[in-house]
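pasting for ref. prot 1 ->
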Amino acid sequence: MQPDRQITVVTNALNIAAELQNKRIPTIVIGGMMLDSTATLVGPVAAAALAKMAFNRVFIGTTGITVKHGYSNSNMHEAEIKQLAIAKATEVNVVADHTKFGRQDLFSFAPLHGIHRIVTDGSPGEELRAALEEASVDILLSS
């Protein structure tokens, strides 16, 4: 199968790389230290690889989204990689299920206005929805 567009996927997630194997989509897996809990690659090697790249579009997960702390993650190393990817991107998309709305984890990696779009399966509460709207963040509901 040939992709509709010319894309190259860059990931630090081993499960994403495995999913793309044999899909005829060029994939770059950045190096780094593997976190056993998430099978992601982080640390100075991963950061150095990202520093040499520029992205048209990034898709990033989050473990929490709040008005006060923006987008957060439970692991400081993953939060650092997310910050670097955001800094190198033209368009930033957060992919999060509805349970992440109103949840805050220890490490914030972006303020609400630092993201262009949230792809989710449900709507946030009224306060967060209003704050996201004020921050010009699009919410794309996916089924």
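and prot 2 ->
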Amino acid sequence: MDNNERAYLGRFLFPEALEGKEVSDLLQKAVSAERICRLKYCEGEYIHDLCLQVHKERTYIYSIHDPDSFGYELSESGKVKRACYYLFNCFDYTESVPTNVPALQMSRRRFEELKAKADSYTLYFLAECLIAETGDPAHSAQLARVLKSRTADGELKLCSRSKGGWTLQHACYIEDAAGGWLLRMSSVCTEDWMIAIPATKAEVCSALCQWMLCSSHAVTPE
């Protein structure tokens, strides 16, 4: 990984702390990594902000803001799977088969505006705002309920090495007591789109495990 690659990955993974020593150290450790993931997750007092690095025979998990707090090395696929579920505070390994899953597409910037103001909006007004963006009344109302009463927030920034360079993916996850949504968005900051699909936490964990263990898998609930 040369300096241009490190700068490219740094801008994507750590835009808020590009010049920090912790970021520099993490990117240096990732020189031989095949895949890199920044994982943020918040559910009550259960909070993580981590860097996962997949090398040929080892997977490493590092804390970002407190690099001296811990670092884990995993060498078995079963331990990688358990770690993925643990990091999402998920212990349900049951995978469902989705049918007729809706996909809501809208402006990412507009969605982030609505998410930031969800607490101050009524559920009805929030749903109407989402319907205006997506054109889907029923599923926009479901998404509005999750935004209004969400109990968990997660973010995944994924980098996969290929012969042509690095492939980047960006996704978020939100959840309330009734269920969750996976939010897919462009990794290019100038592209303003987002696709939301219903997904359980277990489905997101399973998809992350597949990505960690096999680079050909993308993070989509299957």
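Residues 201-213 form the longest helix (13 residues).
The mean pLDDT is 87.
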